[in-house]
Design a protein that fits this description.
By secondary structure, the chain is α/β, with parallel strands linked by helices. The protein contains twelve helices and 19 strands. It folds into two domains: about 210 residues, ANL, N-terminal domain (Rossmann fold, 3-Layer(aba) Sandwich); about 110 residues, 2-Layer Sandwich (GMP Synthetase, Chain A, domain 3), CATH 3.30.300.30. The strands form four sheets. The protein has a twelve-stranded mixed β-sheet. Strands 17-18-19 form a three-stranded mixed β-sheet. Strands 2-3 form a two-stranded antiparallel sheet. The chain starts with a strand and ends with a helix.
Amino acid sequence: MLFKLHVPLLGSQYGPAQILAQARFTDDYAGQALRFCQQWLAGAEEFTLATSGSTGPPKLVTLTRTQLAASARLTGQALGLRAGMRALACLNPAYIAGTMMLVRGLVLDLELWLVPPSGPPLAAFAPLAGAEALPLHFAALVPLQIQNLLAEAEVNLPILNQMQAIIVGGAPVEANLEAALQTIAAPVYATYGMTETVSHVALRRLNGPGRTSVYTALPGLNFGQDDRGCLVIHAKALGLPEALATNDQVELLSPTTFRWLGRADWVINSGGVKIQPEVVEAAAGQLLGPRFPASRWVAVGLPHPTLGQQLVLVLEGPPWPPTRQAEFLAALGQHLPRYQRPKALQFCPQFPETATRKTDRRALLAWLTQELG
């Protein structure tokens, strides 16, 4: 289902009551989107959104109209978005990523094309976009969506290649996916941010000659670091507190650039050595494929009587034969220092997920601890 919504045009042609009435005759996704637009056009000053729950229990965060508009303008400035450009809105508007696509349409005068979050994002648009007469200029996607698009590259690449910018967020971009993104001619960026920071505050180019491992701040924002090595965000331009501390450990390269290392609350302490699980997961991702199939994988620390925690890699799917496990661990050992090598593999038929379909690490660890007794 495809629903065209030129938000500024709606605002000039229809009053809030007509927009709300129109929403009742669309599906849930378009209805949610239109109801948000109705609230915005009616002059609402505050909006309450749920966090994703990926780093703790979901909570409600209230953001102001001024903060949302400022975030939209900074993204527009960073990516060169201009009035009249077409943008694909295919993320749930109940969360910050989907909400901000609507706000960018409202503030930047974009022509939004709404597609439900489930299913192939470009399936309904492809018949219309084959010609240059109707290009898409901007899209926000989660990694799984762009991975699915690349699986049908013959149909989707011509559409993707015409875009001014594509942003990818909501979950880490694994090494295999980042390599696949090199087939896209349009600039693709990973985002760093959260609900509390009014969506992303930094971007990292994932493809092309500008590809980098470094995140760069949106215009007017600056970064610092606390005594834990975690990022501190200075975002007065967004109307946020003077210093917003995060739990993300980073290598701070300058006041506007950093390299992300991982979450402080996921660090594994094994025998006094602190291990960032994201480093182990990235190395595993370089090996996992047809030879070592796994849908998802997570490095965790299991209780250990002498080490405190033992590093284990958990793979989603049925258990492998012992010989394949040994072969994979040996290959993984060639990519990691000795202290970062998992001591064993564990398997989970299906990873528990948060409301936004991210792996729920805490629930997975609880399940694994119970399974192992």
